[in-house]
Amino acid sequence: MPGRFITIEGIEGVGKTTQARLLARALERAGSAVCLTREPGGTPEAEALRTLLLRGSFDWSPRAEALLHFAARAEHVDRVIAPALARGEWVISDRYSDSTMAYQGYGQGSDRSFIGGLRRLLALDPDLTIILDLPLEVARTRLAGRGLPLFERAEGPGSTAEKDRYEALGQDFFARVREGFREIATAEPERCLMLDSTGAIPAVHEQILAAVLEHFMVAPAQ
Ligand code: Z5A
User: 203-215, pLDDT tens digit by residue?
Assistant: First the structure.
């Protein structure tokens, strides 16, 4: 049986990592083999690009920045995602191509048709994308609780977290990114499901699990 490819998307702090782990655990408990991974990253080479993109003090041209994300993604697809799917595993990726469209396209104003073209060239879309949505202030409060920054972080005493290149971009940037994710969800309703993630962690998990079961398990008997 071919594997299934699920991506979890949204602005920073919506709970992607938390929910990706819970979903992976639930599927494993049900007896499925799961490959849990993230972007940018997933292989040593892609993690090296992640360090350049998040930690480097570079000012890439918009198209170069989108290409770097897709270079990391091609590495990730070829070496991790496609082989896992071929083995029949469930692949859960914490971010994927929609992040490039939302962050570089909507957030940074990079050419969205160029990014759409890269996505088509890569030729591997998820079977299901869960887009978690949260007001920016709630995401900021959650990240502050974890000791990590989102825009306008209060850098009080004891705060050692260093902003990455995206986190430093400010509230207007994150508002555009959030809107970008909402537009993606509206444009591709067969693939994308947008869920409000203001609820408690177990409640959001239940919603995601129900959505996954409905999307994949409903096979009407003929
Ligand atoms: N980026 C890009 O620009 N273009 C691309 O193509 C790609 C990425 C692929 C990667 O950052 C950065 O790269 C990202 C976009 C850019 N930059 N930004 N901003 P990352 O991988 O370091 O981090 P992240 O993906 O943005 O997410 P995050 O910080 O790990 O947040 P999260 O995964 O959405 O949330 P979380 O870690 O699961 O939860 C955050 C906290 O909230 C934590 O303390 C939880 O316990 C808590 N939490 C989670 N859910 C709840 C609920 N439901 N209630 C209360 N508290 C909760």
Answer: 999 999 999 999 9
Cα(51)–Cα(40) distance, integer angstroms: 9
194 SS3 class: strand
Copy the structure tokens of residue 72. 């990391």
The ligand 1 atom at the shortest distance from the C-alpha of residue 94 is 25
Asked if residue 27 lies in contact with residue 90, where contact means CB atoms within 8 angstroms, the answer is: yes
Which helix (H) or strand (E) is 13 found in, with range?
Answer: none
Structure confidence by residue, pLDDT tens digits, 63-74: 999 999 999 999
Ligand 1, atom 30: closest residue by C-alpha? 17
Which of 2-11, 159-168, 209-218 tops mean pLDDT? Answer: 2-11
Taking phi first (over 0 means left), then psi (-120 to 50 degrees means alpha), and beta for anything else, what does residue 68 get? Answer: alpha
The model's pLDDT over 102-135, given as tens digits with 9 standing for 90+, comes to 999 999 999 999 999 999 999 999 999 999 999 9
Cα(5)–Cα(109) distance, integer angstroms: 28
Q: Provide the CA 173 distance to its chain's centre, in angstroms.
A: 17
Query: Does 174 contact ligand 1 (Cβ within 6 A)?
Result: no
In angstroms, rounded to a whole number, what is the distance separating the alpha carbons of residues 154 and 133? 23
| Distance (Å) from CA 219 to ligand 1 centroid | 33
Indicate the pairing of strand 4-9 with strand 90-94. Answer: parallel
Probe residue for ligand 1, chosen from 7, 14, 16, 18 as the CB with the greatest number of ligand atoms within 8 Å: 18
- Which residue matches tokens 């309703």? 189
